[in-house]
Amino acid sequence: MEYQKPELVTAEKAAVIFGSGQPREISETLIAASLNLQDREWVEKWLIHFTSHPDSDVRRAAALALGHLARLHRQVSREAVEAVRRLRDDQSLAGAAADALEDVEIFTREP
């Protein structure tokens, strides 16, 4: 897999893509939204939603998005953490979930 810089995305465009049902586009947009949108809570609502998506790549992107939010905003909601924590039960996503939760622990600690 080769790194691709996420495109800039607006909340309006992201919402359209999230409703498209296209797993690859949803995954890419979750990452782009977590890196570019300032409304952390809005992005969290979508990542929580997508942690139960049938496509494992979408669920993996939701976990990665949580890690990005923690790093960039230095806070995340308990609900988002719990949603990603549940992904540890899926063997194929356990590593991604653990990485995201570690980011939360590292970047949201009080000094």
Automatic annotation (TrEMBL):
CDD domains (alphabetical): CdiI_Ct-like
Classification via SUPFAM superfamilies: ARM repeat
Organism domain of life: Bacteria
InterPro entries: ARM-like (IPR011989), ARM-type_fold (IPR016024), CdiI_Ct-like (IPR049796)
First and last residue of the signal peptide: none
Protein name stated in the entry: HEAT repeat domain-containing protein
Organism: Streptomyces antimycoticus
